[in-house]
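Supplementary Methods, section 5.1.

A reviewer requested that the exact input to the structure prediction be made available. We therefore reproduce it here, unchanged from the version used in the analyses.
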Amino acid sequence: MIKATIPYQAELIFSENEVRISGSRILADKVQNLIRLYGKSPTNWQIQPVQTGEDVLLNEFILKCQNKPSTSYQHEELCHCRMIPAEKVLNAVKQGVFSAREISRVTLAGTGCGSCKKDIEELLSFHVK
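The structure derived from this sequence is encoded cell-by-cell as follows.
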C-alpha cells in the first residue's frame, strides 16, 4: 500500500491495483483525468504542474508509486532550533503555502538561527515548479 496525505483534508492510496481518493472533488477529477490519460496505475502517470497544494499531494503520490524520492529533504527534522519536522513544512506546502516567508510564518521553521532557510527554499523548489 502506498499513501500520500494532507492531514485532515485529503488522502490518496494505491493498493491492489486500485487508487482510492478522499478529499475534494477537484482532486478526484484530477485523478480521473490521469487515469484517462495514462491508465489506472500511478506508476505510469506524469508529474503535474503545481498550482495548488493538491497538485503537490498528487505529485508526491505519483513519485512514491514510481519508487522515486517524493521530497528533496530526507531528514526527519528540518529546523533544529525550533525542532520543526520536515513533514510539518511539507504539509504546509501541500496546504498551499508556497513561499519561504509564509512557511516560516505558518510553521516557525527558519525563525531561529536561520540556517535551515536554504533547506526550506530547496524543499519549495522541488515541490513548486
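The chain has two domains: 2-65, 77-127. These observations are discussed further in the main text.
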